[in-house]
Specification:
Helices cover 42% and strands 12% of the residues. By secondary structure, the chain is an alpha/beta fold. The longest helix has 16 residues. The structure holds iron/sulfur cluster.
Length: 412
């Protein structure tokens, strides 16, 4: 078993230690009082309610809400306003979400509600692979200008290189890329620079981003399943020591949609896993913000409550039990472990798209992403199922999942 993903008692202790080993709420209460300022909404938002705690976002020094709003779905303008008026002050979007429509909707909503300056706004460049050497500034700035126009603003608080993978991480060391971001900062088009990542190389990318010094914040997949990922935990420790802004996404770590029968007894125990999952990230004192893909008022209300409530000992225990019981149902994204046995199929990517389809309900997006893969990346017929399944240290039925993905997301 790879050291990155093997069992790790240290990680387990970290998770349980956040709440279960304490009297209910004591640990979180002390953590939050040390890190989060007294809740208050910035002035300017009509009907603003001071309901979400603020936190200083690492080296940016900016006060943002611990709860951020994600917009990678067909976000409604009225829901954007609801979230902002409720006190959410961190919004994450991208030029690639809904093929630029998310930025347009967001720009309209913030302009109409006159709340642009009340929120910390992040968007992302998803076409930066050619941004090297002399071309770097032009490639990055052209995309940024498109985002600024759609967002109806003359600056974004942070601009990301989106979805960085191991293939692109050398850009972090390219002086031209660093200089492009510094130039955009000087001219006031961006305040801070960052990147997002859900690649198997996340620990290495996080490590390098922390070292190069010009990356102010990073958003990455982080949830209750990350506790036994030793390399990631070490990279998060290092980034936190260097005071990087750390933003969690995909905090649900859900496998339920794939195997609902395995977890229904938790529901019967009155355990709301979604709430416990987000609370478990809020308890991690190194993480600043959780970006949540909220789609309705009920989720917004629950998440806002979760920023203020402790992860109870019972929730921590059940979440840990749930993690252990479903560990072999959830793809951890460690494609380097199994993809050499997959004859060119990018297993981690395909299973991520399958999760978008099954767990997040993003069916159209998942199908579009899958169908955009080259044909050879979807050719599962040549795979030796025994070899591939044996390559996954987490015991996932990899071949069966790839077949399910092809059936659900493929062209047929
Ligand atoms: S199938 Fe298993 S080895 Fe492959 S990426 Fe997913 S969790 Fe890692």
């Amino acid at each position: 078993m790879d050291g990155n993903h093997g069992g790790c008692d240290g990680g387990r202790r970290r998770f349980l230690g956040a709440a279960a080993a304490t009297t209910a709420g004591a640990a979180l209460a002390s953590t939050n009082s040390a890190r989060a300022d007294e809740p208050q909404a910035p002035a300017g938002a009509a009907n603003a309610k001071p309901a979400v705690p603020l936190v200083t976002l690492g080296r940016t020094g900016q006060k943002v809400t611990k709860l951020g709003m994600g917009t990678s779905w067909a976000v409604q303008p009225s829901f954007v306003q609801t979230a902002v008026f409720a006190g959410v002050r961190y919004i994450d979007t991208s030029e690639s979400y809904e093929n630029t429509v998310a930025e347009q909707v967001l720009g309209d909503a913030l302009e109409r509600s006159k709340t642009r300056k009340d929120v910390y706004l992040v968007t992302k460049n998803s076409q930066y692979r050619r941004a090297t050497g002399e071309r770097a500034l032009k490639v990055i700035e052209e995309r940024l200008d498109g985002s600024l126009a759609r967002l109806k603003t003359d600056y974004v608080d942070c601009y990301y290189l989106h979805g960085m993978s191991g293939r692109e991480m050398s850009l972090l060391k390219d002086p031209a890329v660093k200089s492009a971001f510094e130039d955009l900062k000087r001219r006031g088009k961006i305040k801070f620079s960052g990147l997002s990542c859900h690649d198997a190389k996340l620990p290495e990318i996080l490590d390098l981003a922390a070292e190069v010094g010009w990356v102010d914040q990073i958003m990455f997949k982080y949830n209750f399943r990350s506790v036994n990922h030793d390399a990631l935990q070490r990279a998060v420790d290092k980034a936190a020591k260097l005071n990087m802004g750390l933003v969690a996404m995909k905090t649900q770590g859900g496998a339920e949609a794939t195997y609902p029968d395995k977890v229904k007894e938790f529901v019967q125990k009155g355990f709301k896993r979604e709430v416990a999952a987000i609370k478990s990230v809020f308890t991690d004192e190194r993480m600043h913000v959780v970006v949540s893909e909220m789609t309705n008022r009920e989720q917004l209300r629950e998440n806002m409550s979760a920023t203020r409530e402790a992860l109870t000992a019972k929730e921590a225990r059940l979440l840990e039990e749930h993690r252990e019981r479903t560990a072999n149902l959830y793809c951890h994204g460690c494609g380097h472990l199994c993809e050499t046995s997959a004859k060119g199929v990018p297993v981690a990517t395909v299973l991520r798209y399958l999760r978008y389809y099954q767990a997040y309900g993003k069916r159209d997006q998942a199908r579009a992403l899958y169908q955009a893969l080259p044909a050879e990346s979807r050719a599962i017929v040549d795979i030796d199922a025994d070899v591939l399944d044996a390559a996954c240290p987490h015991g996932l039925p990899v071949t069966e999942l790839l077949r399910t993905a092809d059936k659900r997301l493929g062209l047929a």
